[in-house]
């Protein structure tokens, strides 16, 4: 009885939160409209007042919270095998980035040459890039570090010192530092969020990386290894594939109908290279007008995207209508359409003889299909029904039974999936409220007591062999390798907090945010840049020395996240891809919310994963390892990046300088637990 009462109580709580969310929906819509038009007004005013600047319209969270004192500079460390050829590296960066041009002759990535400045609280690029010098950005380290040349023994401290320094403010905010060592060359790439705001610029192009694994790696072992995708938080939200299948079938049907329509009525040219059709009736005229309208819209949209990318001024506001009219006239001219031809087609269709012949053709067609062919249609339907009963499918897909056999299951399963989505939407307000306000721990820790400088330092562990780990620890679907890795991270953070036990209590649980990044983030050059970045979830990480019970506890927490944070995950992906959340609120209110939640979630964990560890530079050298250091910003002070490429683990840490030098304790403890923990 108590269980039923608790479920009823939770249902009422869910209903109340959903009703409150529905009541707030009009306010959110008004906030979106106000924020959108106010941003457009500010952009217009600043663009008019400062014509020499290109004002940023980005609504990315990092852009909003970025400050000169606490700059969000991403660091990428590449360990390149073989000799260091600095001239070749510099040549490739000039050829493929700074001097690269598109087919129209414009610079492909102009913002890489432009100085980034602030203007009334907004970022902007100085259009004049005549002072750009690639030698300020592609640097060769020839200095010694603390009396010794840089080598594998002191490169970690050297890179940390580089990360501590700001990029000069009078330069475009990116750098590539080549660090020769005895066995290999390392490159440290530093860039801000603004430097990658180019629409077509991918991280892989900044890093000059590509994936040189040209075949699928098939791994043998336990079932948990074959289903390794399920271990990552990136895949805990299943795509609605039934709805996707239904939409794909409908799309194919529309394409087939359009192709047939195109073949019958297109007057410019036909697929079999026949002569142009003459416009002799109203139906041909209307079809031609439809073609002209669609082609003009496509051309206008493509031109608009080019104009937006290049910031041209001839395709804005009032000129939009003029340009679209010009495109309509151009398409009509290509198809030899004139007012005289349209008038003749209309008069021909309205001629009494043509009207009578058209009506007669319609009546004959109705009689043939409605009377004469009825027995044949009945036979086809019965034959299709027989095949469906005995074979489960039919070859007569054009029959009603054949169509129903295809679309009825799709519609039913799509409706079930839609109901599940609606149920998740119904639960979303209460889940978000609980995860953000009820389940978060309020335990104080040393991270809340420090005053941060905004400068960053880094640390990273050595490479850890996952095969040896699996030989020492037996994993299964309820005791996963990814859960063990998180347990080792939790143990490393626990050891760090213990060093400050005299100043602050060691918490039992730590609020963290967690997201995943796929290997394609470093190697892919096509598609959306955000496709390889997963959504954010809130992870209350229990802190203790790793043991079997601890790993099982983390496993249960992850399973709970999978069931309760679906909408949080999807909303964060919407923000990453489309700036969905920041577009709803004014900038000031957005910053206040970010500061509040980042104070409660001072640690961010990023799981970077790939099926293999095969990397190669564009100039052909093998890359032994790639490390990403995501900068903590706002009130977040510690960023932990767990790299898993193939069978290699590595932890990369970026922290505020106030957490050093003990921040390296986290990487050392992570190594110790991953290599020596016995469960």
TrEMBL record:
Keywords from the UniProt entry: Membrane, Transmembrane, Transmembrane helix
MF terms (GO), sorted A to Z: O-acyltransferase activity
Sequence ranges assigned to domain O-acyltransferase WSD1 C-terminal in this UniProt record: 534-675
Transmembrane region(s): 12-37, 285-303
GO cellular component: plasma membrane
InterPro entries the record matches: O-acyltransferase_WSD1-like, O-acyltransferase_WSD1_C
One GO BP annotation of this record: triglyceride biosynthetic process
This protein's name: O-acyltransferase WSD1 C-terminal domain-containing protein
Native organism: Glossina morsitans morsitans
Upper lineage: Eukaryota, Metazoa, Ecdysozoa, Arthropoda, Hexapoda
